[in-house]
Amino acid sequence: MKKVLVLLGSPRKKGNSAILAERIARGATSAGAKVETVFLHGLDIKPCTGCYRCQKPGARGCVIKDDMQAIYKSMKEADAWVIASPVYWFNMSAQIKLWMDRCLAFTTYAKDSFSGRRIAIAMSYGGDDPFDSGCVNALRTFQDAYSYVGSKIVGMVYGSAMESGAIRSNEALMAAAEKLGKKLAGEE
């Protein structure tokens, strides 16, 4: 059975990016995957200090002792990740950026930790256009980062919605998110 880790990077548990991630998770579950969801907001995740101790020979992970230790374990156990974020000030949320910066140490928790990892991205933004909203900036960051470490972005779903829950009215996007979940779990 495949394991999928969903990382929610919004301060809203029921926000638009979380709704997209939930629909991806539904698709993955229907394809037989086991899903774990982590709500990053409110966890004790400190910023990377750039000490590089995690990169030294014999390193045994990140030296910062906070909630990332449990997240590293979940990341290692998962076959695939869903990264969900609203667009805040023309890029991903601070919660996702904190997590992403701390992923430098993930390389010491698993051999070839990123290589071949399957990833889905879910984003919501205000405005009418993914370019002038900044959504494309975040998507490009994910593409560049995961290409660099050898992970595979299986797909991305993103859409416009300002009010919490408004994204549900975009039926085509909801269907695309569920289809992405099935693909992420290996059904398609």
> Given this structure, which CATH class is correct?
Alpha Beta
Identify the CATH architecture: 3-Layer(aba) Sandwich
Measured by DSSP, the beta-strand proportion falls in: 15-25%
Are there runs of 5+ residues with pLDDT below 50, and where?
none
Main beta-sheet strand count, sense and barrel state: 5 strands, parallel
Order of helices and strands: EHEHEHEHEH
Our Rg estimate from Cα atoms comes to: 16 Å
- CATH-assigned homologous superfamily: Flavodoxin domain
Total helices: the number is 5
Number of strands: 5
Kindly report how far apart the N and C termini lie: 15 Å
Shape: globular
- What's the number of structural domains? 1
**What number is the mean pLDDT?**
95
Q: Write out the strand line-up for the largest beta sheet, numbering strands in chain order.
A: 2-1-3-4-5
- CATH topology call: Rossmann fold
Structural class: alpha/beta
Secondary structure: helix percent? 25-40%
In short:
The protein is of the alpha/beta class.
Question: What does this 3D model show about the protein?
Answer:
The chain has 188 residues and is α/β, with parallel strands linked by helices. It has 5 helices and 5 strands; from the N terminus they run E-H-E-H-E-H-E-H-E-H. The protein has a single domain, classed as 3-Layer(aba) Sandwich (Rossmann fold), CATH 3.40.50.360. The chain is 33% helix and 19% strand. Strands 2-1-3-4-5 form a 5-stranded parallel β-sheet, with helices on both faces. Helix 4 (135-148) links the parallel strand 4 (118-125) and strand 5 (152-160). The mean pLDDT is 95.
